């Protein structure tokens, strides 16, 4: 098979929407996405939502060949839903895969700007609240502090130049996802987003942040919990300790090598 050109990749876009109890949001978000980027396909990855989100998605898919639904057996966290969605997208030949929340926080009308950054050469694009031009609407101060604090903590430990490490509105070239050992990803909550950008950077992929306006959800409940924050804190700190020990060991080895020479 001939390799996919950049234009081929951008012609084959899949937007993955993980859902758990998003019955009030799913139709409006898919409608907005279909309007904003008409050639993109959508995969709803639903964890058997008790509120019937999966059945609504089925109805939408029945009327539109650009909408697909993956029914998963139960709530396993957004990380697991994204991994299943990425595998489905890669197996079905999509060139660019996008992660997108159902709750209206990520605005479909901003997706063309993320895709433009892929077109300009990025391997991974992060929609970012905390770069110049980015913003949040209707977010309580506590959420802003958790998000900014989490990104700062990540930057300090991992030494990565990413302002919004936990952001979930991202676009990946298929080759990026193939090159970051997805099978080893164990993060379940929003730490998943940090895990993926850290892997992309470690593997030498070009990561670009583009400013987005993030809007607090109007309908339905947030699945953010203390466990999700604690998971992110523990995992990033462990990766950071491993990273910093690696740096020290490499420096010691270099020094020892210089002495011996
Ligand atoms: N399939 C699946 N989707 C999930 C799960 N948890 C959350 N989601 C979806 O992932 C997206 C983000 O979840 P939110 O609850 O909005 O979490 P958040 O965006 O981190 O938190 P808020 O900013 O408070 O909304 C939404 O589309 C959810 O429906 C899950 O366990 N399984
Ligand atoms: Mg949300």
TrEMBL record:
Keywords from the named record: Glycosyltransferase, Transferase
Cellular component aspect of the GO annotation: membrane
GO BP: glycolipid biosynthetic process
Family: Belongs to the glycosyltransferase 2 family.
Keyword Oxidoreductase in annotation: no
Top-level division of the source organism's lineage: Bacteria
Classification via Gene3D superfamilies: Spore Coat Polysaccharide Biosynthesis Protein SpsA, Chain A
Stored CDD domains: DPM1_like
One GO molecular-function entry: dolichyl-phosphate beta-D-mannosyltransferase activity
Name used for this protein in its record: Dolichol-phosphate mannosyltransferase
